[in-house]
């Protein structure tokens, strides 16, 4: 109907086709790879990445070279904060979730303010912020009681909640629906695309450019915080630097999902497929018994090939 | 007719503005001088001859890698694989020098091959980004994984020693002056020459507006590939310095340098969006990172706070550089 | 013998046919005018010749020999130089570097020969000596230049190719009269040297002043070529619009008739590039801003819209104080602003037409939710009022021609009716029929009680449509022309006399 | 007078490292009671190899008496350690061995560390079964020594088959994901050899798959894991790489600065400069004792041991 969906649909189909193909490859290499239980486990891992990528996707859609490298730091910090606040007790979950969302929002706002008010390029601002967060992790870990996940949280992430599907996958699905509605059916969504496509024109038509952009970075921080809490549930206890792994993969998931880094077009369904694609690829490589050097070379080359499917830019001479 | 009236009082401001436009690295220079003074204040020996020699020895590699990064940033591109190229070249030359016996010719031969490997990696990146039109950030991240895997294949575990002839040269002195200073002077000359190359202007023009450059008749794809090739070559040179300073092969050695090289480029006043900047600034930016790290220690920051203070200081320097540079130019 | 000949070149972008069948024959020593309404395919044709667009079919002959133009570089090598409508300049490079960019003089193979570069650029800079304006210098960077100065650099860059064939795609759209005059002198000299020149403009007077022959393109088809002495504007327009009746300019407005209470009044307004500006606009009135290019007219309009920082003075809207800090403030109070620079200020590229129409409504209607059906219903009337040609509201805006894009940009202000409409050279690069539509609509809006301020760089347009004209010079209003004073003579006199 | 000792740590990505520094600082403070003032200065940050070389250069500039370093590379410090020695500075590496002839290594033998747990696993499996290994960062020397260690042990048991070895970069979550993928691919795993914090992750996947009773896997030494071990009655065994190694190295450094001489010069290991410390082992036999030693400590706290000043003195003439 409206264009955001139209634009999102195509890459989504491409990525979905690739997912099926990769699952077939995985099943051929090691029987049992595409069994329902294993796919659910892959979905859990993909959900963690996909939630981080939701924020990344928003920031990228907003244009002006939008990118958020600080997601890794926020994920780590939030996992640690959540672990300390819940300290293995279910009663601590609400407080932990609220505190983490606030923390994520705080750093997101800081990023947003730097990018809009001081007009620091997002890559620079969030790279610097990542350094700060990594430093902060070291400080925060000093003299803390514990970093254990509450049992209910672990259950939510790893055990079946409904229809045999774990809660985190439902959460991811919910986030997916909210993201699609947000981007296509709200004024805020239209404004995101507008500032991502032509910030000046958006400004001249009354879009509160700065506020929208700050909101995008804030949401990115909050999504990373949610991912951090879930990651705590996934691994049972918090530990340092868990989030670093999510920085570049979250960007790749967005790109594989058909949102170009230049912003202004694309959507979240593709990103979800991109995240799953990435996780499946990594899993296949884990199960193949070759040396790590070989795994890395295959992974790098495979990423390049995957990007050829839709990550390509416009030709100079059309 | 209008503007002529207001010309007189603004001439001084105009001159400042022009200076910042011509020398985008001025904010970096100011920060660098301030940091040198502070380092000297807290630890006089750190700015002694020996201290500065050590600084240059350690950070020459990052300076070169930042220069490498600058050439792709000129064109509005970026190279996240620069650090992986450093690792790859490092292990290639160390393994070759060992296999060929570690003599003078072995060292020179290995250096030659190493630089070719760097160049080759750069060209691969250039083809992926410019010819295949993949987005630079993600494509070079993918190639970085590939190069890192290759490095691991060449040398599966860190620790192969480089021949003494090699690192003793790098760490040694000639006529009482440390080798690295000769290298730094040579680097300055090379950069001066490169700044006058047609390629530099063309890269900057491409960075300003690739479509416009293309329509002007510039071979945009070839220019961007050349930019990446230059980047690979300088990453190779950076690897030589890493090898000289660490005297060994390590397939992981360059990994963390990539982000620092980008930070150095920004600290040096170049615009990541392309079209504007100077390699001189990136060299200063690399030194700023080094000096911030040592200053944080010299002022007596408790160990658990060091990372945070370093992170904050670099963030503030980045923001200050961007803001001051823009204010001064506007 | 023709210097350049195009035989049936065509180009489609997805569903959009940009050029159906372009035929053109240009001889050495002539200025060959290309004319056609917006989106008729002129620029596409030019870009095909210049190698920056790949044609789908057709052939290009140089000196009656077929050539393969594989890219802009190849075109240059074949002796084709071009001025791009959208310019092709590097913002952070200097004037002289930009002039020489396609072919940097070299030293020792790899290095730039700085002296040769300066010498070469100086030749072309000298051609516009005296008309280039304040701040124009060989060492100035593009980002510090005004739009007209940038256009001059693009002209110099095209001239520096010294190509036997020169393509000039709307090179005068931002230039003022003195600059155009100088440029035409140069063109006449080049013509004398035997160059073949393709010249595009929407300004009829320019076409008849400089052209030798004129070729008309309609909907991507070449529909005819005539010698300029054998034709007249009316005939050309008839060719452009086809079977439809040629559109006549609307009758001059009834000056002052039916002007209501002041809706916008301005006192002592000062800001970057203007000062001591004062005026009132009544309901139903179209107030014109005239004068030479860049005398502060646009800046005043932007200031009224809240898009310029650091202004002083008093503005009142419908009698109430008004101090906009951002366009958002102005929009909320019912001020609308249409910029002629649609690529920069107007169009949200790459997004659907509907999304381009709605942002103002979102703000004025205090909306949070965007329901597609609701949006369609609101957008339709606004689009239809302007006779916009489009397939579906969900199509990307890039599928429309420039003129139709501009209509969308205007239509977005009509969904919620504003009180004040600020038009900042709104017809730049718009074809004649679209202009006629637009001014009919503007008059209608005025009649409905809007106060309208119109700045136009085309004097005829201003004289025909404004009830009253304020002539700007050096950032101030130097003369007000009302009623029968609104003559071309008075306008020029006020514009050219020293401020 | 006071000995000034610089502690250099090039990675702060785990609590183990923090604890290592804290124990070393505590050890320095303990010398005061003995009448010897020891001042420690610390540089501890995430740096790459060149960055850590810069840390050492800072210490040299500052004129410390000794440097104790947990190095990011085995060989990269040769030149800068030579420079330190020229300046009369004692250099001791800990946790990871260095090749420099100008330094000594005080710490555990990483290979023996891996051998101990591999041996436990092989014995627990009765000398036969399918084993997978989850390793740290490929190319990292400590990892490679450990890999060599377990491979050597497993090769001595003809019944043990290594199905696959994967790298999870010493990251708990990656260890968990790797284990999950391995479980899906190989339904018949009997044993898992996994290092450090990744063990907690691997065990989580094993528990999620409901295979706690059928799989034996190596463990780790943080209190959280020890608690889990007790609670779930895991079939596990863990070699201890105590964070106290730096404190041990510091005690040795102080004694050397006092001019004392080692009874047995440090000549062990591949670089002939090592002084190996004993490697404690945790299995079901001493689990209770370890648990009580960790009583009241935070979850990330690692089971530790170190050479006391007296232990260290005993090594000197
Ligand atoms: N005078 C102007 N003309 C054109 N574009 C502008 C102008 N001023 C700002 N912009 C564009 O709009 C962006 C945001 O500007 P602005 O400061 O007004 O934000 P805002 O949306 O009003 O934010 P806030 O909600 O904080 O007021 C700028 O980065 C710039 O690209
Ligand atoms: N890159 C493109 N992608 C899609 N459509 C395009 C593109 N370039 C041009 N078009 C379309 O092709 C048609 C012809 O465009 P062109 O720019 O040649 O018109 P023109 O005659 O130069 O118009 P104007 O007078 O407005 O400059 C228009 O409908 C335009 O929207
Ligand atoms: Mg055109
Ligand atoms: Mg504002």
Automatic annotation (TrEMBL), chain A:
GO terms for molecular function: transmembrane transporter activity. The keyword Membrane applies. It comes from the Bacteria. Its main location: membrane. The keyword Transport applies. It is found in: Cell membrane. InterPro entries: ABC_transp_permease (IPR001851). GO terms for cellular component: plasma membrane. Pfam families: BPD_transp_2. Keywords: Cell inner membrane, Cell membrane, Membrane, Transmembrane, Transmembrane helix, Transport. It is a multi-pass membrane protein. The chain crosses the membrane at residues 38-60, 92-113, 120-140, 160-183, 214-234, 246-264, 271-291, 297-313. Part of the ABC transporter complex LsrABCD involved in autoinducer 2 (AI-2) import. Probably responsible for the translocation of the substrate across the membrane. The complex is composed of two ATP-binding proteins (LsrA), two transmembrane proteins (LsrC and LsrD) and a solute-binding protein (LsrB). PANTHER family: ABC TRANSPORTER PERMEASE PROTEIN YPHD-RELATED-RELATED, AUTOINDUCER 2 IMPORT SYSTEM PERMEASE PROTEIN LSRD. This is Autoinducer 2 import system permease protein LsrD. The lineage of its organism: Bacteria, Pseudomonadati, Pseudomonadota, Alphaproteobacteria, Rhodospirillales.
Automatic annotation (TrEMBL), chain B:
GO terms for molecular function: transmembrane transporter activity. Coiled coil: none annotated. The keyword Transmembrane helix applies. GO terms for cellular component: plasma membrane. The keyword Transferase does not apply. Keywords: Cell inner membrane, Cell membrane, Membrane, Transmembrane, Transmembrane helix, Transport. It is a multi-pass membrane protein. The chain crosses the membrane at residues 23-42, 48-68, 80-97, 103-124, 136-155, 175-195, 227-247, 253-272, 279-299, 305-325. It is found in: Cell membrane. The complex is composed of two ATP-binding proteins (LsrA), two transmembrane proteins (LsrC and LsrD) and a solute-binding protein (LsrB). Part of the ABC transporter complex LsrABCD involved in autoinducer 2 (AI-2) import. Probably responsible for the translocation of the substrate across the membrane. PANTHER family: ABC TRANSPORTER PERMEASE PROTEIN YPHD-RELATED-RELATED, AUTOINDUCER 2 IMPORT SYSTEM PERMEASE PROTEIN LSRC. This is Autoinducer 2 import system permease protein LsrC.
Automatic annotation (TrEMBL), chain C:
InterPro entries: AAA+_ATPase (IPR003593), ABC_carbohydrate_import_ATPase (IPR050107), ABC_transporter-like_ATP-bd (IPR003439), ABC_transporter-like_CS (IPR017871), P-loop_NTPase (IPR027417). SUPFAM superfamilies: P-loop containing nucleoside triphosphate hydrolases. GO terms for molecular function: ATP binding; ATP hydrolysis activity. Keywords: ATP-binding, Nucleotide-binding, Repeat, Sugar transport, Transport. Residues 4-244, 259-499 form the ABC transporter domain. SMART domains: AAA (SM00382). It comes from the Bacteria. This is Sugar ABC transporter ATP-binding protein. It comes from Hypericibacter adhaerens. The gene is rbsA1.
């Amino acid at each position: 109907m409206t264009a955001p969906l139209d634009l999102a649909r195509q890459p989504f189909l491409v990525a979905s086709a690739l997912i099926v193909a990769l699952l077939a490859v995985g099943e051929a290499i090691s029987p049992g790879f595409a069994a329902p239980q294993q796919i659910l486990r892959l979905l859990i891992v993909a959900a963690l990445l996909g939630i981080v990528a939701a924020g990344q996707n928003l920031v990228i859609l907003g244009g002006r070279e939008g990118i958020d490298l600080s997601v890794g730091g926020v994920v780590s910090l939030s996992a640690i904060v959540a672990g300390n606040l819940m300290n293995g007790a279910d009663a601590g979950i609400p407080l932990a979730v609220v505190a983490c969302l606030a923390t994520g929002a705080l750093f997101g706002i800081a990023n947003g303010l730097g990018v809009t008010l001081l007009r620091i390029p997002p890559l620079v601002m969030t790279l610097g912020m990542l350094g700060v967060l990594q430093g902060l992790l070291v400080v925060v870990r000093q003299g803390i009681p514990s970093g254990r996940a509450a049992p209910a949280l672990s259950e939510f992430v790893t055990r079946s909640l409904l229809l045999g599907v774990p809660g985190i996958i439902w959460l991811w699905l919910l986030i997916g629906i909210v993201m699609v509605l947000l981007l296509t059916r709200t004024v805020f969504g239209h404004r995101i695309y507008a500032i991502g496509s032509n910030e000046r024109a958006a400004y001249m038509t009354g879009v509160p450019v700065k506020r929208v952009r700050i909101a995008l970075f804030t949401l990115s921080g909050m999504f990373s915080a949610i991912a951090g809490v879930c990651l705590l549930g996934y691994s049972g206890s918090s530990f340092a630097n868990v989030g670093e792994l999510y920085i570049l993969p979250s960007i790749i998931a967005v790109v594989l999902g058909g949102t170009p880094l230049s912003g202004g077009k694309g959507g979240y369904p593709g990103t979800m497929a991109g995240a799953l694609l990435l996780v499946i690829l990594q899993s296949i490589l884990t199960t193949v018994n070759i040396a790590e050097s070989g795994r890395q070379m295959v992974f790098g080359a495979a990423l390049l090939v995957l990007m050829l499917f839709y990550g390509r830019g416009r030709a100079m001479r059309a | 007719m209008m503007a002529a009236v207001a010309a007189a009082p603004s001439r001084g401001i105009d001159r400042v503005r022009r200076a910042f436009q011509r020398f985008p690295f001025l904010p970096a220079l100011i920060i660098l001088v301030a940091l040198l003074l502070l380092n000297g204040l807290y630890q006089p020996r750190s700015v002694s001859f020996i201290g500065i020699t050590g600084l240059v020895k350690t950070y020459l590699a990052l300076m070169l890698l930042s220069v490498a990064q600058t050439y792709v940033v000129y064109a509005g591109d970026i190279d996240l694989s620069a650090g992986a190229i450093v690792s790859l070249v490092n292990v290639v030359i160390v393994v070759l020098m060992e296999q060929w016996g570690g003599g003078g010719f072995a060292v020179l031969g290995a250096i030659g091959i190493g630089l070719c490997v760097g160049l080759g990696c750069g060209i691969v990146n250039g083809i992926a980004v410019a010819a295949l039109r993949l987005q630079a950030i993600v494509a070079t991240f993918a190639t970085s994984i590939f190069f890192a895997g290759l490095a691991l294949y060449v040398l599966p575990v860190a620790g192969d020693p480089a021949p003494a002839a090699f690192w003793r040269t790098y760490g040694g002195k000639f006529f009482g002056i440390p080798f690295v200073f000769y290298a730094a002077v040579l680097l300055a000359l090379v950069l001066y020459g490169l700044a006058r190359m047609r390629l530099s202007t063309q890269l900057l023009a491409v960075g300003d507006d690739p479509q416009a450059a293309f329509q002007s008749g510039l071979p945009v794809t070839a220019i961007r590939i050349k930019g990446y090739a230059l980047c690979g070559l300088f990453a190779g040179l950076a690897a030589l310095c890493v090898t000289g300073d660490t005297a060994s092969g390590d397939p992981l050695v360059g990994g963390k340098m990539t982000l620092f090289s980008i930070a150095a480029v920004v600290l040096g006043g170049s615009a990541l969006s392309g079209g504007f900047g100077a390699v001189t600034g990136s060299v200063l930016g690399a030194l700023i990172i080094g000096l911030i790290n040592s200053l944080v220690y010299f002022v007596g920051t408790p160990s658990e706070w060091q990372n945070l203070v370093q992170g904050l200081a670099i963030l503030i320097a980045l923001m200050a550089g961007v803001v001051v540079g823009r204010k001064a130019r506007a | 013998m023709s210097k350049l000949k195009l035989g049936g070149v065509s180009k489609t972008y997805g569903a959009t046919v940009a050029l159906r069948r372009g035929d053109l024959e240009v001889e050495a020593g002539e200025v060959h005018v290309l004319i056609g309404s917006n989106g008729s395919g002129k620029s596409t044709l030019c870009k095909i010749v210049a190698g920056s667009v790949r044609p789908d079919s057709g052939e290009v002959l140089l000196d009656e020999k077929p050539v393969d133009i594989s890219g802009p570089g190849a075109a240059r090598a074949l002796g084709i130089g071009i001025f791009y409508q959208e310019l092709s300049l590097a913002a952070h490079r200097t004037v002289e570097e930009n002039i020489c960019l396609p072919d940097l003089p070299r030293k020792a193979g790899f290095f730039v020969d700085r002296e040769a570069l300066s010498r070469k650029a100086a030749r072309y800079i000298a051609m516009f000596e005296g008309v280039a304006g304040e701040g124009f210098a060989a060492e100035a960077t593009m980002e510090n230049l005004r739009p007209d100065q940038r256009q001059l650099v693009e002209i110099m860059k095209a001239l520096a190719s010294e190509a036997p064939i020169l393509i000039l795609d709307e090179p005068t759209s931002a230039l003022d009269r003195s600059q155009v005059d100088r440029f035409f002198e140069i063109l006449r000299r080049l013509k004398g040297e035997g160059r073949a020149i393709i010249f595009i403009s929407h300004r009829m007077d320019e076409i008849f002043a400089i052209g030798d022959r004129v070729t008309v393109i309609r909907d991507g088809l070449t529909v005819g070529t005539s010698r300029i002495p054998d034709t007249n504007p009316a005939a050309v327009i008839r060719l452009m619009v086809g079977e439809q009746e040629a559109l006549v300019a609307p009758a001059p407005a009834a000056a002052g008739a039916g002007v209501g209470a002041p809706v916008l009044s301005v006192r002592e307004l000062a800001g970057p590039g203007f000062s001591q500006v004062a005026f009132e606009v009544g309901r139903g009135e179209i107030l014109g801003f005239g004068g030479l290019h860049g005398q502060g007219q646009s800046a005043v309009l932007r200031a009224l819209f809240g898009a310029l920082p650091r202004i002083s003075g008093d503005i009142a809207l419908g009698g109430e104080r008004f101090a906009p800090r951002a366009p958002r403030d102005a929009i909320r109070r019912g001020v609308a602003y249409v910029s002629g620079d649609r690529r920069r200020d107007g169009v949200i590229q790459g997004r659907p037409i509907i999304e381009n129409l709605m942002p103002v409504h979102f703000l004025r209607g205090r909306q949070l939710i965007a329901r597609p059906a609701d949006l369609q219903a609101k957008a339709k009337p606004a689009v239809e009022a302007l006779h916009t040609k489009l397939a579906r509201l969900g199509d990307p805006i890039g599928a429309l021609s420039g003129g139709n894009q501009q209509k969308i940009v205007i239509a977005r202000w009509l969904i919620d009716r504003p009180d004040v409409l600020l038009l900042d050279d709104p017809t730049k690069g718009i074809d004649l029929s679209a202009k006629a539509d637009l001014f009919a609509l503007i008059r209608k809006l005025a009649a409905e009680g809007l106060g309208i301020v119109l700045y136009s760089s085309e004097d005829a347009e201003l004289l025909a449509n404004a009830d009253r004209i304020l002539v700007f010079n050096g950032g101030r209003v130097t003369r007000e022309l009302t009623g029968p004073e609104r003559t071309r003579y008075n306008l020029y006199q006020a514009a050219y006399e020293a401020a | 007078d006071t000995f000034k000792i610089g502690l250099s740590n090039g990675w702060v990505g785990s609590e183990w490292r923090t604890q290592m520094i804290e124990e070393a600082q505590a050890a320095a403070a303990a010398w005061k009671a003995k009448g010897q003032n020891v001042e420690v200065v610390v540089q501890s940050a995430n740096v790459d190899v060149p960055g850590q070389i810069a840390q050492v250069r800072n210490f040299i500039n500052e004129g410390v008496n000794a440097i104790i370093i947990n190095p990011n590379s085995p060989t990269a410090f040769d030149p800068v350690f030579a420079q330190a020695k020229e300046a009369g500075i004692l250099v001791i590496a800990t946790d990871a061995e260095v090749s420099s002839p100008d330094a000594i290594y005080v710490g555990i033998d990483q290979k023996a560390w891996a051998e101990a747990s591999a041996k436990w696993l092989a014995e627990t499996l009765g000398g036969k079964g399918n084993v997978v290994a989850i390793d740290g960062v490929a190319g990292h020397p400590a990892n490679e020594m450990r890999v060599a260690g377990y491979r050597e042990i497993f090769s001595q048991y003809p019944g043990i088959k290594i199905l696959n070895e994967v790298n999870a970069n010493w990251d708990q979550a990656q260890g968990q994901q790797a284990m999950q993928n391995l479980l899906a691919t190989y339904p018949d795993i009997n044993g898992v050899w996994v290092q450090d914090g990744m063990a907690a992750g691997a065990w989580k996947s094993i528990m999620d798959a409901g295979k706690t009773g059928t799989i034996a896997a190596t463990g780790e030494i943080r209190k959280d894991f020890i608690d889990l071990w007790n609670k779930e009655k895991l079939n596990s065994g863990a070699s201890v790489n105590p964070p106290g190694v730096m404190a041990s190295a510091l005690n040795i450094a102080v004694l050397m600065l006092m001019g004392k001489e080692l009874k047995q010069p440090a000549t062990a290991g591949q670089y002939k400069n090592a002084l190996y410390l004993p490697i404690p082992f945790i299995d079901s036999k001493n689990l209770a004792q370890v648990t009580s030693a960790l009583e009241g400590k935070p979850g990330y706290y690692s089971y530790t041991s170190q050479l006391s000043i007296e232990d260290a003195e005993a090594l000197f003439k």
